[in-house]
Every structure is written in C-alpha cells, then in structure tokens.
C-alpha cells in the first residue's frame, strides 16, 4: 500500500503515513522513544515500525518504496553504495560509546580461555553475526592494533542470539556480540578481550537511518521533518537512559534485569564522517567491496 | 480404537515434554539454552494472557490458511491438467524441475520488493513453497490410476471431465491428502519463516524478537506453539481423510476385520 | 456390423516381443451373438481390447458399422476379465452401475429403474450400498455384468464374464444375456472357456488357434433360437457341436499358428 | 529429438520472455537477464565450484541420504503398526510444523556449528515427505498381496524387503522426489547459519552485499542443480520402478 | 488333520453387517482331497481365509494337526481367487514362484529345479522372465498355481484356481493337482464352481448352503483312486454323483441358512 515512494500516504489532515524498516534491537530505541514522546506526530508524521532481520529484508523495502525509511549499519550502506543502490542516509542511527571496555559491542571469550588480548585471536575461531560486514572488519582492526596478523582469523557466522551458547559449548573460541547478548555472555562469566568499535575509530558511527534516492529527491520536506524528529529523539534518548531502558520493554522481550544492566550505546545526532571513512578504508582492506571504493560523500546527507 | 489412539498420541507428546524437562535438569544440556518444560510452560502461560500473542497467532494462521488454500487449489488443478495430458506433462517437466528447488527464502527480496511486510509477502512465499508439494503429489497420484479402471471408463465413453471426476480424482485422492498434509506444514513453516525474516506480523516475528532479546524460554514456548498448531492441523486433516477415504485400502485397514 | 480384417498385434517391451495376434479376419453382423473360444493366452483379451478401441493394433483394421475404430465407439459396453479391478473401489455397487448411465445422460428416474433391474437380474438386490471390495469374487463379477446390462449397449463385449460364479448362477446369467440380446438386438461378442456355454449361447462360435493367433475354425450353431438350459443341452445336435468345438481346440493346441513357425 | 524439444521447449520460451521483458529494466532488484547471465559466467568459475558448490553438494547428499534411510525405516515401522503410529504421529507432526530456521539454535546445541549441523538441518527438513509417503504407501499395500505373503510364510525382513517396500515404492518415490527439492532448499537455509562456504552461503552473501545479478545467477544455478538432480532421480526411479511404469503404460501405449 | 468347528464369521463395517458363515463344522483328514462347492457369495473364500489364519473368525475354531490356527501355519500354500492381485507385479514370473521357496530356505539349485518343473507343469515354460502383468488372465492364474505347486506344501488351499483357463488346460491342471496330491500326500481343500470338477477331483465333496452358511450336505466320491479325464467322466457313477451335487446346490439356493431366518 504505497504510492511508489514519493512519501507516505498523506491523509486529509496532511499527516504522512511513514513506514520505517528497523531491526528490533537496542540500537533503535530512540525512534520508539521518539514515537512515544510524540516527536514525530508533532511533525505530522504517523510512524509504523516494520521489523526485519537485517539489511537483506529492509533495503529492498526502502528501494521499492514499501518503507519510506530504513535502519542499517554503515558497512552495509557502504557496500550498497559501491553497488549503486539508490539510497541516501538521512540521520545518524547509533554510535559507539568510544570507551574501551564499556561499549555496547565487544569480543568475548570464556573466563578460562587462554586468549588474553585481541592479538591472541589469531588462528582462532571467532563468531560474528554476518561475515564480510562491520563485525569482522572492526574485529580485524582490533587485532591489527594489538599487533596480530588479521589475515589468520577464522571467522564463522553465528547469529548474536546463538553466540552465547556457541561460546559456552566450545564451538567457537571467541564471540563478537552486541547488547543484549553481551550482557548474557558477561552473566555467564565471559571475559572481554576487545572493544572492536572503539579500536576501529574514536566515536565510531555504527549505523544510520536512510531513505531511497527517489524519495530524497521528490519529498525533501518529509525527509527534513523525519530527520528533525529523529535527531530530537536521539538527543532525548541520549539524555534519558532510564526511559530508554523502559522503552526497550515495549518492543523487545529483554527481561528487566538485563535491561537494567546492559550498556547503552551513544546516540549523537551528527554522523562522524571520519569514522565512516575509516569503515570504508577497513572494508576496502578486507576486500568486502570487491575492489570498488565507496563514495562516502554520495551516501551521507 | 479412536479413543485409544488419541490417548497414545497424548502419551507420545507427554514423553517429549518429560524428555525436555529431564535433559536440562540432568545437566545434559545447559538450561540457559534449552530450558526445562516447566520454564517454557511458565513463559507460555505469561504469553497466553496477552492480546499481542493471540493477534500474532491469528496473523500467522490467516497467512497460512489463505496461502494453503491458493496453493492447494492451484496445485490440484494444474496437477490434474498436466497429469492427464501427456503432452503437457512432457512439455512442462523440465520447467517444473527447474523451478521447484528454488528456495522460497531466495525469493524474500522479491517478496519485500513487491509487498513490503504486508500479508502479500508471506502469501507469496507460502504459496510458492506449498504449491510444489501438492503438484508433485497430484502428478504421482494421477500416474497411479489402474489401467483397467481407466479402460473401463474409456470403454463406456466417459468424457474427459467424467474420467477426471470419477476415476482420476479418487485414485489421486490419497496422494492429494498426503500432499495437502505436507503442504499444510510447509505452509506453516514458511509463514513463520517469512515473518521471522521479513518481519511481517505473526508468530515468526514474535520468535525473532524473543530470539534477539535473549528470551530463551519464551522463544521455545513460541516454537512449541507453532508445533502444536501443526499437530492440530494434522488432526483435522486426518479426520477429514478418514471421512473421504473410507473406501481406500489404507483406511479399510484401520478397522480390524 | 463389426469387421476385423488382418488384425495383428505385437507386444513389445524391452527385449520381450510377443506376437499375440498374427492375422485375424472375421465379421460379426449387427445383432449377432458370437462366441469366441481359444486356448489360454491366445489373444482373446487382446482382440477384445482392439475391438473396443482401447488398444491400437500393430496391423490390420477394426471397423464397426463401416467406421474404423480408433477409440471406444458409442453404445459399446465391455465386461473385463479383470472384473475386480474394473470396478471402482471408491463407489458403492449402485454408483458403479449407475455411473455409465449418467454419462449417457439418462434421466435420474430411468437410471434408478435400470440399476435396480440390472442388479436384480444378476441376483444382487440388497447389496446396492456395499462397496465392491465388500463382495465376494462372484458377486463382483456380477456387478460388472449388471453395469454392462444396465447400460443397454448396442455392442456388448464380454471377456469370460461368468468365470467366478457358480453353475446355477451361470446358467441364469447365460439366459440373461440371451434375453438381453434378443430384446435389444445387441451385437454380442462373448469370450468363454466353457465350450458348452459357447455352443449354448452363440449363433456362431469362433475358434482361435494358440499363439501366434489366427482363426482356426468357426461353426454356425444351428440350434433353434429359443433355447433353454434343460432341453437345449440335452439336444443331440448340441452334443455334436460341442464335441466338434472341443476337437478343434485340441487341434489348435497342438499345431499353433496358421502360417507356421512360432515367435 | 522430440523429447529434447519437450525438455527444452518451455524453458527456452520462458527464458526468452524473461530476457525480453527485463531487457530495459531499471529496477535495482530485477536487473536485465543479460546482466545476470553475464555475471553467471563471471561468478561460477571452477574455483567457486570447488570452494562452494562441492561442499554444498556433499552436505546435500549426506542430508538427503540420512533423510531417505530414516524416512523409509521409520515410515515402514509407523505404517505397519497402528499403535506405534498412534503414539508417535503427534510428536512427528509437532516437529514437522516447526520451521527448520528456528530449530537451528537447538540443533547447534547438540551438533555444533560444523557440517554435522547442516546435514541434520537438511535431513530434518526433507525427511517428512519421505516419511509421510512411506507411511501412506505401506498402509495402502493391496491386502491380497499381504495375505499372499503371509500365507506363504514370507515374514520378517523378506516381507518388508520383497513385498511391502516394492508395493509401496511408487509412493515412496513420490516422497523421495519431493524431498530432493526440499533438501536443496534446506541446504540454502542451513548455510545461512554458521557457514563460511557453500552455495547457499554465497547466494545469501550476494544478497547481503547487494550483488543482485550475482544473486540471481546463484538462484539460476540452484534451479539448474535441481534440474540435474531430478534428472538423475528420474533415471534411478525409471530403473527401480520399471515394473510399475511398464504396468501402468503397458495397456496405454503399446 | 484339519478340524473346523462351529466356525462363524460376521463382517461388520459401519451399518452393514453380513453374516458370511453361520456355523460350519467339518474335518478333513491329513492327506485327504476335499472339494468345496456352494453358491456364489456363500462364504467359501471367507472359510478358506479363516483356515489359512488370514482372517480371525467371529466364533468357533480352526485346528490344524491339533493346533489352533491363529496365523498362517507353516507348510501351507494358498491359491487366491484374486490371482491377479496375489502376484507381485514388481517381480518376474520366476521370482514370484521362487520367493516362497527362498523363505523355506531351499538351496538355490533345488529352487531352480522346482521353479522350472512347476512352470513347465502349468504350461508356462518360456515366460520365466516376463512380468505377471504381461501375461493373459489364464496365464497369471497358472503362475499362482505354479507358485503353490513349487512350494510342495503339506496343506494346499485352492480358491477357484482354474476359473480363467480353457477347458483343455483345466483338465491338465486337474490331473496335475491330483498327481501332486498323490505324490506328496498333501491335504487339499479345493473350491470350485464346476461340479464335474469337484466330483472328478475330490475324495469328498462338501456342499455349502447359501448365506448365512452352514454345511448343506457332503458326499464321498466313491470313484476309483486312479482317475483319468476320459474314463472317469464317462463312468455312470460319476454322472450320478454330479447330479446329486447339482441337486443339492439347487436346493441350497432355495432354502438358505440351516437354522432359519436370514440376516
Ligand atoms: N501388456 C502386455 N505386454 C506384453 N505381453 C502381453 C501383454 N498383454 C498380453 N500379452 C501377451 O499376449 C498374449 C495374449 O494375451 P491375452 O491376454 O490376449 O490372452 P487371452 O486369450 O485373453 O488369454 P486368457 O484366456 O488366459 O485370458 C499372451 O501371450 C500375453 O503374454
Ligand atoms: N471385506 C468384507 N467386508 C464385508 N463383507 C464381506 C467382505 N468380504 C466378504 N464379504 C461378504 O461375505 C460374504 C461371503 O463372501 P465370500 O467372498 O467368502 O464368498 P464366496 O463364497 O467366496 O463367493 P464367490 O464364489 O463369489 O467367490 C459375501 O456376502 C460378501 O459380501
Ligand atoms: Mg484374457
Ligand atoms: Mg470367493
């Protein structure tokens, strides 16, 4: 039910029906919070959240105009850019806390593991949620910074949710996880060996909200209103962590104890362009762009 | 007999529950990852009282039922048409074999492209997957017509429609039933998978949310619900089958002579 | 009129090749009742299938009323040797008998009458609602006969239709077939192994040789048209004829194939 | 000659239609067929074959074999025994209705994340058509045939091997045929989790990295794979069920 | 010795209830050849199935050599009325005949001999490698007979085994059965609709009433043990006996059920 991407359905009151494709995880808490707080309604936007398991389901939806906006990590967006997928970011999504040991994503090992530092990961089996994406490129950077050879890490794909079990059962030597699986691993006695986002770049921008190039061109006003609303939401979320932990209960099934304990990411409104450049560089080094160079400027607003 | 069979079936399911309770309790698996039945049941109990849960079940069943209906209707019609006309069968065989193994999951981008997270996406995947199940069964069923029975019909100059109606269809019916039962569960599997991956509303989406949230008992509770839906669907199919296949050897055999 | 001319049928499957019919030529006039006898495996069923248009001959022609047979001609009814498999197990006895009538677009009322009469005639009144597989072999065979009889065909092909019934029932059914034939002037081709039956029933008896098959001999049964079980079978001419047929069949078994060597 | 025309006719027509209809396509996700074919040649090189297609095929074969053996064995047991059937049917139906993707975590718990897990996922998914068809086929064996076997003291393994299985084989074949394409589908699904090579993994990877023509070329390869496998299956079936096809066609064709 | 005592069988399925056997009592001595005749649908096949242990009686007992029959007893061979369906279509004629022998653990060499002899005896030499469905009805029936003959059973149950073969072959097969019986001292129970055949073959003929079924009558065939088609059938005593049997069957058809009312 959409009119081909030129903005959502507009009803008589001038309210735009907007669908946003998101992954129902911690990272998108601000948009749910903003919806609760009425930041979108006040800008005549009626939000519907559509959840998908990842970019594979969200990007096509945005490109075809089924969703007006989507949420995705930067590496995926950069890959899309090299393939000339007609999309453009509109606002920052989520960023690393920038603090070693206190980020919302980390490489974890079992308490009794011989792995002490990122350099020890060389030659080991490390799980990431998707191969050739932000996880493995940033973990490689951690290893590189610790003085190891990142070529010899044996990455395997394990969904975040299954990573704690895989680590526990000894099926992998280390896992890269984000919240809330991170808290789960910690609770099971896991030990942190690297904060890969922090190692990759200071204040790394991890993900962004994006729209199709078509919508960006045709309905600049909607995009502008959406961006403003998101930015207000991001700022509010950053300032009210307790409310964030509260809103998590509304769209996820994370139990209350974990919600209280988990490390929240940062939600700055500005996309850290240098960090995106770094991601582009790292991706290029690891060959995930098939030799192409992403045009960061073209992707960012 | 029917009562006895029902009791045995319940016993079988109870055995499964006991096993799942025992495995983590005995420390054979970590109860964080496979919680005992009692914890799963408790999570399910919490869920049963929420409207959200029932809406999810309703959404899933809607997608399932519509998809299955379309798939079965199309599968039966196309199957009989192709099966009964040798030329068509020869001409389409290779195409069918080519299209059949294309996984529905590979169609996800296409589905999202066309329908977003609407019911249409789920339907596309469900119909695509379930259709082949019915079609292949119908094709084998049509091939199983007893030549003498067919010749009898031909010698009495039955028209094409009468031959389908009175000879082909009853012969193929047991195969069709197997096809429908296969399709019913494949459709359920696909409905849930589509929701899981695309995020269309329904049980699958709930499972995905529970999964990413690390709510393990809830996840198993929801999985159990899909399984139970399957059991219910099969039960209904069996009853229906016993009614309409009373003449068939396999049902005849059920009644001790 | 039914004309069979130089009919030849060879079954081929893999390495095996069987010449079931070598060269058959004969005619049956409209309204005639002809019996066919021949040793087991000589090709009688094959011949009947070709006449019914169910099997394509390898050579030669079958013409019915001047038209070449390529599919089952209208107004034809056939009782198959495999009676058990030719009944539809998913239908009650009544439905089995009624179905061809429906196809013939006979009114519901008339259908009911025909079905009832036919089942009655074969001694199966009372089993209408049973499934065929709930009946004994002989009863199944009689259902198949009732189906053909109720159809009121213009051509009736019967392949050992009384093989599974007892002597008394057999006699009754023989009279039933003759009565039907006389009432409707049906062209009947009747295969049997019972030589007495062939002579009792037929106006003519065709004898086939053993495989590869040709028409070995034929006799015209010059018994009076009004026959009955007691008197006809006691007629000395009857005995003469049956002896002749018996001898011919003996001969057929000994020197197979008209032209010569076997396959 | 005629058979070749039948085999190739419709696919050629469909591909031509696809080619023409997609020729001017601007859609990112539905590129022109020409582009897909071009990337097909570039993508599926010999290296790729040994690195991705071969491991996939091995898993597929293993999973399918496990499913076939298990499906027939359990199917015969369940089909022959009313009480066993009544007891296990609901449990089987329960597992049958559970989507393999959500079961993967449980399977990972018991089987790790290696090839074993993938084989189990494949077997788990494609055992059902074999099982169901075997059960139905066994139940439908002609009573006279069973009686004959019983009367002549054909019992135990011989009864199953020489009478029941052959009698049910047409329906078992239907199940095996269904299972084949499901096995391919599950091969892809299993490689979506915890894999680092394989045909399914590659396709999913293409999809994630927006290499859409390559993704479509992978789907075409899957189709071709299915086609070739089913051709092999048909050959095997034709051999094993020669009696059946002969019986069914004898009167029709000759 | 085979003892059947107050055997009763009622078929129940849904609303339909058929009392196929009411109350049957008779014995067959070891090594005796007894023929069974009775109207179509009277329960002969049902009786045979009960004796073979394939069907559980609703009441009464069957004892073979003192042991109660609950499943098919060893050394039993049966020729089914549905000969076509009792052959395994996935096996060649040879394999069909050989399979039971394998179960009997007979050596390969001996098996080959037995199969060859049996097929030869029924006139099917040369069809060993054909599938049953490539044979004519009569040929199929003879395969089923060959299977029973090759098995060298100690008890042989035959259900209208010659219904589909021609007169000449039938005579040959009758002699085959008698020869087998004399050679191996088999206990034979033989169902037929052909009264002449019953008298020619049997030492005794049991006549069943029509349904609900009891033993209507029985006669001992006091013809000499050495019989042949020409002389025995010409014997006036033969004619006498067959007339008696015929009359009894006529009577059976008219007043069914020993005790009284029908089901
Ligand atoms: N489908 C078939 N494939 C191969 N050979 C066949 C087939 N059907 C029949 N035959 C062969 O053709 C010959 C004639 O068979 P047919 O059934 O016509 O004999 P018949 O005269 O009806 O015999 P009967 O009296 O025993 O029924 C036989 O030798 C038989 O083996
Ligand atoms: N499976 C069944 N279900 C219900 N009724 C049956 C079943 N089998 C046989 N009957 C009934 O039992 C009676 C006896 O059948 P049976 O087959 O024993 O007769 P028969 O003496 O062998 O007859 P025929 O000479 O015609 O073969 C018949 O009335 C038949 O309808
Ligand atoms: Mg015949
Ligand atoms: Mg009988």
TrEMBL record, chain B:
Gene3D superfamilies: MetI-like
Origin: domain of life: Bacteria
Topology in membrane: Multi-pass membrane protein
SUPFAM superfamilies on file: MetI-like (SSF161098)
Residue ranges that the Swiss-Prot or TrEMBL entry lists as coiled coil: none
Segments forming domain ABC transmembrane type-1: 57-241
Chief place where the protein resides: membrane
Subcellular location: Cell membrane
Transmembrane parts of this sequence: 64-86, 98-117, 123-145, 166-198, 218-237
One Pfam family recorded for the sequence: BPD_transp_1
UniProt entry keywords in alphabetical sequence: Cell membrane, Membrane, Transmembrane, Transmembrane helix, Transport
Entry's family note: Belongs to the binding-protein-dependent transport system permease family.
Protein's UniProt name: ABC transporter permease
Organism expressing this protein natively: Paractinoplanes hotanensis
From TrEMBL, chains C, E:
Swiss-Prot/TrEMBL keywords: ATP-binding, Nucleotide-binding, Transport
UniProt name for this protein: ABC transporter ATP-binding protein
GO terms for MF: ATP binding
Domain ABC transporter: 2-235
Highest taxon above the source species: Bacteria
Matching CDD domains: ABC_NrtD_SsuB_transporters
Keyword ATP-binding: yes
SUPFAM superfamilies named in the record: P-loop containing nucleoside triphosphate hydrolases
TrEMBL record, chain D:
Family: Belongs to the binding-protein-dependent transport system permease family.
Pfam families with a match to the protein in the record: BPD_transp_1
Positions in coiled-coil regions: none
UniProt name for this protein: ABC transporter permease subunit
Domain of life where this protein originates: Bacteria
The species this protein was found in: Paractinoplanes hotanensis
Topology of the protein relative to the lipid bilayer: Multi-pass membrane protein
Cell location: Cell membrane
Transmembrane segments: 62-81, 102-131, 179-204, 216-236
